[in-house]
Amino acid sequence: MWNIEEIKKDVRKNLKDYRYNHSLRVMEEASSLAKHYHADIKKCMLCGLTHDMCKELTDKENEEFIKKHNLPKELLNPENKNIIHGVIASILVKEKYNFTTDMVLAIKYHTTGYPKMDLIAKIVYLADKIEKGKDYKGIEEERILAYQDIDKAIILCLNNQIKHLKEKNESINKIGYDTLKYLKETTN
After folding, report:
1. C-alpha 52 chain-centroid distance
2. Domain membership of residue 113 as a residue range
3. Do 124 and 136 form a contact (C-beta atoms < 8 A)?
4. What is the pLDDT, as a whole number, of residue 96?
């Protein structure tokens, strides 16, 4: 597996300043959450660093990647515009950096979560939502809850995300709803 400094340089080549700095903040937040919840710090940091590495690909680049890797063409549909970068990044980190399966899944589903997520996936999902550069209504409550009850924090983030997307007349991917339902059923 590559070291963090090498991957930082590699990720930097593909992202504008804003997105790269966001990725660094997600890496820092993932490290903090990993320490708090006794998860693998390096894995969480690497996932945080690379989670958005494909966010700035063009539609044409997304289409070429999907063809090359024989992925479902539905990924190009408008309802998947917010998840396609995670799917592509998850394949690239496996091919390029030999990330483990748990890391690949955390990156693939960092925008929606998924039912039965492991701790690394939960940390990466939350770190992306609550990193220090973000500021929106409800984020302080999300940040506090993230260090009290990780599942309840994810439920809160998903509820806030769904509400926000509905206000913008956008839809959340079905996986987000499935994640929310699963967590509500399994969390006290």
Report:
1. 7
2. 4-136
3. no
4. 94
Residue 152 lies in a domain: no
Tell me the per-residue pLDDT of 68-126, one tens digit each, with 9 for 90 and over.
999 999 999 888 888 999 999 999 999 999 999 999 999 999 999 999 999 999 999 99
Rounded to whole angstroms, the Cα distance separating 34 from 55 reads 24
Q: What whole-number distance in Å separates Cα of residue 131 and Cα of residue 114?
A: 20
Domain count, the chain: 1
User: Is residue 130 assigned to a domain?
Assistant: yes
- For residue 101, being part of any structural domain is answered with yes
Q: Is residue 178 part of a domain?
A: no
Round to the nearest angstrom and report the end-to-end CA distance of the chain: 38
Give CA–CA dist 125/172, Å, rounded: 15
Q: Comparing C-alpha atoms, which of 129, 178, 140 is closest to residue 30?
A: 129
Q: How far apart are CA 121 and CA 42, in angstroms?
A: 13
CATH number of residue 99's parent domain: 1.10.3210.10
